[in-house]
Specification:
Length: 192
Amino acid sequence: MAAFAVTRSRCVLLSGLKAYFKTFGQVKHGAASAAVAQSELQQQSRRWYSVSHLSVQERIDRKRNAALIGGGQKRIDAQHKRGKLTARERVELLLDKDSFVECDMFVEHRCSDFGMEEDHNKFAGDSVVTGQGRINGRLVYVFSQIMDQAMMVGAPVIGLNDSGGARIQEGVESLAGYADIFLVRGRGLIRL
């Protein structure tokens, strides 16, 4: 976010300088000087934009790679040692090959209580894998806030749950209501 903010402020600065040089050039050195100054600033602005675009893409790629390994290789190995698959591995087995499209990969929790605001307590996707895919060619949505999208298109929702615990402090009351709400709101919308 900081790099993006720096880029935006740099662009604003450059556009402000363009306006300043144009005015200054017209008064002191004539319109020709202003045109040259404006042209040079536009080239610098374009060059800066392309460099910042690459850095943003690199940051996105880094975040995506971090999300794909979840809590890290150590945690993946611990799952495998217990004879369990990771969430992404289970989704991959459930759905048709290469049909999974993930949603909300970069979401992080908003809890600031109980030391949760520290970076080592934040995981991309908030430790939940959600998205859409196909089973035997039929569109399905795989778990969480994805329920609303599934109801819009009349597709079933499949939840694959596995947890060593939960952040109970974030709303134990809401957990019990998920299935009830989906049952009521989805009644008649989803063919089984």
